[in-house]
Design brief:
This protein is mainly α and about 190 residues long. It has one domain. The protein contains four helices and two strands. The radius of gyration is 19 Å and the shape is elongated.
Length: about 190
Amino acid sequence: MALSARRRDGRVAEPRYHPAAQALHWVTALAVLGMLAVGLWMTGLPLGFTKLYAYTWHKWVGLVVLALTVGRLMWRWRHPPPPLPSAVVHWQAVLAPIAHWALLALLLAMPLSGWLMSSAAGVSVFWFGYIPLPDLVPRDPALFEALQTTHYVLSRLLIAVLVLHVAAVVHHDLLRRDGVFRRMWPFGGT
C-alpha cells in the first residue's frame, strides 16, 4: 500500500512506501553496508581470534540479511511498491525494477553462497552462537573453492549494483528533485 500526503503548498505528494517497507529497506541497507565493510576488512587479517570473530559475525549478519530479504520479498508480494513519479523518464522507469530485482537477487545469493561455502568447508553455522543451521552440502574442498570464488564475484556485483543504486538516488534527489528518494525516506520529506 502506498501512502500519500499533502505537501505544504497543498498539492498531493507522490505516493510513498509504507513505513514497514521503509524500515525493511533501511535496516537491510545498514546491515549490507556493514557486511561489505567487514567482509573487505576481514579477508586481509592474519589468522587469529580477530579474524575468526569477524568471520563469525559476518556469517551471523549475513543470515540476518537473508532473513530481511525474504521478509522484504514477502512484504512486496502482498504490497507492491508505489508507482514511480510521472517526472521519471521512460528508460529510467524501465530500468528501475530491473535494478531492484537484481539487488534483491544478490541479497539472496550472497548469504546463501556464504552458507554453502561454510558447509563445503565443513564449518557448521550456529546463528548468533545458539541456533544450529543445517549444512547445505557435505564437506568438499573443491566445492568450497568454487563457492569462495562465487561469493567473491557476487560481492563485487553487489558493490557495483549498490553504486548504481546510490548514483540513481543522488541523480533523482539532488539533480532532478523528482521525489523518488523521498518516497523511501522515513523522516518526512514530502
